[in-house]
Every structure is written in C-alpha cells, then in structure tokens.
Amino acid sequence: MGTWTSGNTEQRCGARRCVDEFPHITLPALRLIVGSIEHFPLDGHQAGVVKMGGVPVMLWSLTGRCLKVAHNGPEGKAIETPVHFDWTEAGFGGRRWWMRCPTSGENRTALYGRWGRLACRECQELTYRSTRQTTRQRNLEQVRNRQERVRCRLIDGWDKPPRMRWTTYRRLIEELCALDEAEHKAMRAYAIPSDWSPPW
C-alpha cells in the first residue's frame, strides 16, 4: 500500500529499462540534418554523430538510401550496422518514410543501441519513462518541456532575438507567462493530493 505520491516510478526487479537510458538514432532527428529522405540525392553523402551527455556514442553515415550506424557491439567492440529505409502510402498521395529494424524487419522511427546490437524499442525490451510516472508527474514534465521549447527561441530564455518580429516575440512571452502559471498549478497538484484537506 503506497501513499498518494507513490507510483510505478521506481526501478522494479525485472522491469523494463527506459529508452532515454540508451543511445538511439531517430528518423525525425536525421531529417533535421539531411532533410527529406525521399529527396536526398542518391549519390549524396552525409555523416554525423549521436551524443549522450556530450559524449559521442554512435557514428552514422548516409549514402543515398543506405544508412550505416557504428556503435558498440558484443564485448564492447565497435561494429557497423546497415539500416534500410522503407516507405508506406500516406494521406493525399504522399509517402511516410521509416527505418527498418535490423532485428525484426518492422518499420520504426527510432532504433536503440543495447546488448551489442541496434534494434527497435520492442526488440530491445525498452519502455517510455512516462509509463512509470504518475499523472501529476507527467503533467509537470509536459509543461516544463513546453517551456523549454519556447525559451529556446528566445535569448537567455526571455530576451527578443534579432530579426524576430515584435508580434512573434509578444506571442511567445504571453505563451511563456501562461506556461509559468501552468507550471505553478502543476507543482501544487504534484505537492498536494487532490483529496487532501486541512486538519482544522
């Protein structure tokens, strides 16, 4: 029997590890660097590095439609895993691109390095951290993530960047103030149980 603050946040014996504990490469992050996979030149080449805590943990290179990822293999030796792309029909006649899991062959948007191999979340037996959080914790984290996204567009998290329109800046400041208020509410909800009442 737990208290109102208890939840499935603690690491249980045999529980799945979380995805953010392991190095990973995602299709959205790859597209930010190389652009559209569909329009990437077949003779083009791009390389990059995946870091965790500022430390390089993966190296990747994209040549045409061939993605190769260098990562730690069995016994800590570096190995290179080829990753193939696939696409499915999307709405309005477009294409939705995927990375094919080297282990299961299923279409995925993220692959993780664990147990000396590169594979999808299901093959690596990983879970999302949000599944171990209480509703109060998730609400607070979501608000703070939204705050961070807004602050990243401003100088020092508050000042107007050069060339940004004043209308855009005012809108961001209003959004940031609303998020600050939402954070205070989320923190109060996290600290005080909904069924709590004063003893007097």
Describe the structure concisely for a colleague.
With about 200 residues, the chain is an alpha+beta fold. The protein has helices at about 25-35, 135-150, 165-190, and strands at about 15-20, 25, 45-50, 55-65, 65-70, 80-90, 95-100, 105-110, 110-115, 115-120, 125.
Radius of gyration: 22 Å
Count the E strands.
Answer: 11
Poorly predicted tracts of residues: 1-10
Largest pleated sheet: 6 strands, antiparallel
Helix content: 25-40%
Q: Strand order, biggest sheet?
A: 3-4-5-6-7-8
Helical run tally: 3
**β-sheet strand percentage:** 25-35%
Average predicted local confidence, pLDDT: 84
Following the backbone from N to C, one meets helices and strands in this order, namely EEHEEEEEEEEEHH
Q: Based on CA inertia axes, which overall geometry fits? A: globular
Given the helix and strand composition, which structural class is it? Answer: alpha+beta
Q: CA-to-CA gap between the ends?
A: 26 Å
Count of folded domains: 2
Oligomeric status: single chain
Describe how the helices and strands are arranged.
Elements: E1 17-18, E2 24-26, H1 27-34, E3 45-52, E4 55-63, E5 66-72, E6 78-89, E7 95-100, E8 107-108, E9 110-114, E10 117-119, E11 126-127, H2 135-151, H3 166-191
Parallel strand pairs: 1-11
Antiparallel strand pairs: 2-9, 3-4, 4-5, 5-6, 6-7, 7-8, 9-10
Helix pairs in contact: 2-3
